[in-house]
Amino acid sequence: MSxxxxxxxxxxxxxxxxxxxxxxxxxxxxxxxxxDADDAVEETVGLPVPEIFRRHGEDAFREWEAETVDEIxxxxxxxxxxxGGWAAREGRLNTLPEGTVSVWLRxxxxxxxxxxxxxxxxxxxxxVDDPMGRxxxxxxxxxxxxxxxxxxxxxxxxxxxxxxARICRMLAETGWEIDAP
Length: 181
Ligand code: S3P
Description:
With 181 residues, this protein is α/β, with parallel strands linked by helices. The chain is built from 7 helices and 7 strands; from the N terminus they run ββαβαααββααβαβ.
């Protein structure tokens, strides 16, 4: 029986779930490359995310984001932290290239708002009069899509190292062969 070779890990979940911190730690443990999709979009477009939203609008951001993640997913031995809206589009998690595992980092709207409070400028979708109401509505709408991820892990009350270790344990339990660079 041939085993599955795991070559890419895609982290999904709401803003403040810890995708970038966990992604960086996970990549380090595996000896893989880490890419933050928001940073990659900023590099391509030459503008910070909030400025892209302001000048070009959310739809344009989503197109750049989709193209950027597709490009990253053509690589091997890569962990990608997607922006919170990427996996919210229909079909995203069902059409990943072979050898890709998706992991949903779960966080409540309350905890997400608490974690991102000091960084709200970076997150235009929460830069509104009622960030909690917006976070709750967005998360409710997105949850069914996030739930399509292969694996899920709770992040509340857990450190980055703990979440990372749990993901490694879950990966080991799958029995998949981890690709080496
Ligand atoms: C967004 C999340 C952000 C960023 C953009 C939109 C979203 O990324 O892509 O502000 O729609 O949830 P993080 O999840 O890394 O904060």
